[in-house]
Amino acid sequence: MTTQRIDPGEVPGRPCSIAASLQVVGDRWALLAIREVTFGNHRFRQIAKNTGAPTDRLSARLKGLVSAGVMERRPLPDEPRHEGYYLTDAGRDLVGVLRELLRWGDRWITTSPSMRLRHHDHEFTPRAVCAHCGEAADRDDVELEVTADGWTLEGPSTP
């Protein structure tokens, strides 16, 4: 399955992959559906129950995620006559985003974390490492380079 591609220049405002990504997964029900499928819940009714999403909205979001190539429908192992929702490579690539939202929510939003990431026998603490040089990368070590023609970090370069 091919993932839907969006030209960042076709989104309103600043040409940006964040804005283009949010057109596909920037909805509460979309991200919560991805969370549930990540947890191994592939049936529509499981996803609906565990997200609390209205079924009509969830149905639309799942259809959009399938259309965008984030999820696919395929037969369930225990019931081959019925299909479930599964993440594609593009969908599995969002697991890091979900982990960061969990970490951020635990730190800044919730009063008591309801889940915990574990790595073997200890709490999981992610660390950014540059795949090119292998060096640990802190927030201050990374710079943003604007590559969109006619734009700077401040906005459009021409009024």
UniProtKB/TrEMBL annotation:
Pfam families xref list: HxlR
UniProt keywords, alphabetically: DNA-binding, Transcription, Transcription regulation
Listed PROSITE patterns: HTH_HXLR
Record domain HTH hxlR-type: where: 16-113
Domain of life: Bacteria
Name of the protein: Helix-turn-helix transcriptional regulator
